[in-house]
Amino acid sequence: MGVLVVNNLRKTFKKNSLLGFKKEEKKVLKGISFEVFEEIFGFIGPNGAGKTTTIKVIMDFVKPDSGEILIFGKPNSDISVKQNLGFLPERPYIYGSITGKEYLDFCADVYGIPYYERKRKFAELLELVNLTGVEEQPISSYSKGMVQRLLFASTLINDPDLLILDEPMSGLDPVGRNIIASVMKMLKEKGKAVFYSSHIIQDVERLSDRVAIIVDGKIKLLDSVANIVQEFLRGYVITVRKRGSSSLEVLKVGVDELWQLLERLKSEGYEIISVEPDRLSLEEILVSYIQENRRAG
Amino acid sequence: MNPFPVAKITFKELLKEKSFIGLLTLEVFLLFVSKLISNVVAGDTVKVAMDFALSFFFFTVALYSVFVSVGSTFRDVSDRVVYLILSKPLKRSDYVLGKFLGCAVAVAIFVFFSFFIVTSGILVISGTANLYVPHVVVVERVFLLSLLVFLMGVFLSAFGVLFAILFTSQVLALISAIFLFLAGLELSPVKELVVSSKYVSPVNKLIVQIAYYLFPNFSLFDVKDYVVHLAVKVSPLFFASVFIYSLIYTSAVLLVATYLFDRREL
Amino acid sequence: MKRLLVAFLLVVVSIPFMLKADKSKPRVNEVAPVLPYSYSQVLLSSPGLRSPAADLLFMNLCYLTGNDVFNRWKERKFTEEEWKRLIENVEVIEKLDPYYFDPLYYLGSYVPWKVEKNRELLLKINSILLHGNQMIKDWRLPFFVGFNYFYFLNDKVKGAKYLKIASQMKGAPFYLKLLVPRLYAESGKIDLAIAVTYEELKRTEEGAVKKELKRRLKALLAIKELDRAIRIYRNRFGKCPSSLQDLVKSGIIRAIPEDPYGGKFYIEKKNCTVWTTSNLRPVKKSTSSR
Ligand SMILES: Nc1ncnc2c1ncn2[C@@H]1O[C@H](COP(=O)(O)OP(=O)(O)O)[C@@H](O)[C@H]1O
Ligand SMILES: [Mg+2]
Question: Which of A113, A231, B224, C158 shows the smallest number of beta carbons within 10 Å?
Fold first, then answer.
């Protein structure tokens, strides 16, 4: 069984207008199911699709109308599962008046990390997100990216087996994104599970083992990145050069005809420069789902 | 149950807030105001200065407790700090309790500093006043008043946390807490006037009586007269009962706060 | 910089308009009236601020009285109605802060002189002072009450009663103790006067006072003796003796006793009682005062 199991989640937000008349209901999650194993799992979708709501339900901040969530095989309302969990909310914020070290101390207090271990541990974490040397300064003096990196690092303080990150990349510069991506990879190497949401597709494609695409509260696609790439392969683009000629020719070919064509080209005396897949990027896939949804709705 | 990490970080955050130093400075300023007012009156100027200084002290602590508890709890939710905290192995009741304890410690430190400011202020005022009959200031009594004012601050902090959870608007939460405080101060005099009045119907008298029993009674913490007038005597039993009363009532308020917070969607 | 200068100039330019407007502004009558305060209204509008409210009311009262004293409102003094309100305001102050002494002092020492003709108000003052005395154990409160009875209300017995209470309180000056028996004696309650003097004699430690009380007792006993003689004379002859000599002549007493204060005893014709020209005060040097 997966580290995180989400089963048929449904959530409706009721907006009570003033005086309680005219209750407006909004279905935000319409039966979400997926399972996360020891891997990097990307949760992608457009703004307002229900990513944050899903994560809030997983974290037990919001109760679902129906559905089941198991973390490490236990229901998510069991407080003990959080012992082994790391979580970074969307656009995270912490008091500006305290210092970075004071916040890390708070986290260490919660997990009961003894004082003699803290110095080494904090240094390690800060090193990981390239924040060494700022821990004694108040957080109000940090840039937005620094705060996000600090809070990301702090989620690792208990060495969690499952990391849940809501848009960890947004608001970061490329260097910051790289730092977080490499830490996520490192965690996966160690056999941990990372579940994260994002709308920055390039990172997801590069980083994730599997992705789920959520549009309008429904999962449209759930598969490994490799499979998705395969499935949405339209053909190949082959660049060749006739022996003796200096000009390149570009040929397009369907998936099934690749080998046939290559044999033919070889026999005809062509030199093959490159063979590249001609496929939809994750972004294009996402856009197509959104458009499809819009047409339907 | 582990409210202490939240308590610790809450209190660290609160002490670095501007409101802490700001209200203490205001208290010093109000001491000067008290002195100025007392100069206007004939007779025992020290009595008048103390009346005002201690009232200002009383209300500053009340304001501080309300601002700190409502503000800090409310900001946690609206600024999403609560997500960071609750993602850790802490129960929601731990959070509420921790928030309350953090505020209580902040109030304790605030009262501690205020005690020194107010005591030295009124000692200077009484030392420099020209009176035929000197007005004696008993510091122990100021200290006892400060203890009660601290209890009141703790009591109010519990209400502050509750209201910050209950209301979806910070201003509304603040105003309700302040009104609750003022109403709690009024209750005793209202009951005194209503019950002794010939013109109030028995039904209304009953309503006032019930309100008097159930509503938090903040006038209990107001023993300024005991400090100002040495002729007033107070039995230790009074202090013990006030302590137990505020302890029990505060626990009740916290229970309601945890109940509401457990059911709250964040 | 330029903008700041222009802003400043604009403010300056606005000044004449402000002055003009201020001059033509409608104004209420400048005379500050004495307002009647209601205890319940003041109490309810100042939660937790009973004492400062009392202080402010007293300040207001001092201010108004100051105006009256220094005749700030040239044409007019307080009316009797306003004095009545002032007295009632002191009552409100004392309800708000029952341990506040200064307003009672003001009420006892100053106000009676302003309402000396009004019996009702004087009695009201006395009742407020006595109520205050339940909380504030200060000898001056019963003293003022006694003084009012004695001086303004012409009730020497009640006056003596409260002065006696005052004289027995902590901090009361010793001459009060001498004053009380004299008031009793003057009012014709000679037995009471003697009893009070005895009592004081028992309690007093101070030598000078003791000596004074002994002299007083001697004089009082002499007066009592003479009174008794007059009673016998009246029983026998059915009329008041024309002088103390008559008592000696008729053989009721052997000689007219001497006034230890150096005065002379005589018969007050109106009530046919004995009194002395010394008024129970040393004739030559004066140590006690009235
Ligand atoms: N507390 C709430 N009350 C009502 N509607 C909400 C609430 N939270 C989110 N929503 C709605 O639910 C939808 C999904 O929001 P969210 O999960 O934040 O999307 P995203 O995928 O961008 O994180 C949005 O349309 C939002 O308006
Ligand atoms: Mg979101």
Answer: A231
How far is the centre of ligand 2, averaged over its atoms, from the C-alpha of A108 (Å)? 28
Q: Which domains does chain C have, with CATH numbers?
A: 24-165 (1.25.40)
Residue A194: per-residue pLDDT: 95
> What residue spans of chain B are helical by DSSP H?
4-15, 18-40, 45-78, 81-86, 92-128, 139-166, 170-196, 202-214, 224-228, 236-262
Of the candidates C119, C126, C108, C107, the one whose C-alpha atom is nearest the C-alpha of residue C61 is C107
Query: Mean pLDDT over residues A198-220, rounded?
Result: 85
Distance CA B161, CA C66 (A): 50
Report DSSP letters for C151-188, one per residue.
IIS--HHHHHHHHHHHHTSTT--THHHHHHHHHHHHTT
- Helical residues (DSSP H) of C75-206, grouped into ranges: 80-96, 102-109, 111-114, 119-135, 140-147, 156-167, 175-186, 190-203
Residue C180 pLDDT greater than 80, yes or no: no
- Give the span between the Cα atoms of B27 and B21, in whole angstroms: 10
Contact B119, B27 (CB under 8 A): no
> Which of B133, B229, B230, B232 is the best substitution to test chain C (most C C-beta atoms within 10 A)?
B229
Contact between residue B53 and residue B121 where contact means Cβ atoms under 8 Å apart: yes
CB-count exposure of residue A92 (10 Å: 0-12, 13-18, 19+): buried
Phi then psi for C100, rounded to 5 degrees? -85, 115
Q: Is the pLDDT of residue C248 over 80?
A: yes
Which residue has tokens 């040097």?
Answer: C285
Which of C41, C46, C51 should we substitute to test contact with B (largest number of B Cβ atoms within 10 Å)?
C51
Among residues A67, A71, A68, A26, the alpha carbon closest in space to that of A50 is found at: A26
DSSP H/E element including A188: helix A174-189
Query: A6-39 burial string, b = 16+ CB within 10 Å, else e?
Result: beebbbeeeeeeeeeeeeeeeebbeebebbbebb
C36 secondary structure, DSSP code: P
Domains, chain A, ranges and CATH?
A: 4-229 (3.40.50.300), 234-279 (3.30.1490)
Q: Above 90 in pLDDT, residue A57? A: yes
- Ranges of residues in chain B with a pLDDT under 70 are none
Q: Which residue of B has its CA nearest to C51?
A: B51
Q: If pLDDT is split at 50, 70 and 90, which confidence band does C31 have?
A: low
Q: What is the ipTM of this complex?
A: 0.88
Q: What is the mean pLDDT of residues A181-198?
A: 93
B215 touches chain C (CB under 8 A): no
pLDDT computed for residue B71 by the predictor: 93
Give the rounded distance of the alpha carbon of B79 from its chain centre: 26
Q: Quick check: B103 and B66 in contact, CB under 8 A? A: no
Average pLDDT over residues A220-240: 83
Chain C residues with CB within 8 Å of chain B CB: 40, 43-44, 47-52, 54-55, 58-59, 62, 97, 99-102, 105-106, 135-137
The answer to whether chain B touches chain C by having 3 or more C-beta pairs less than 8 angstroms apart is yes
Alpha-carbon span A239 to A262, nearest angstrom: 11
User: Where does the pLDDT of residue C36 fall: very low under 50, low under 70, confident under 90, or very high at 90 and above?
Assistant: confident
The closest alpha carbon to C52, from B57, A185, B63, belongs to: B57
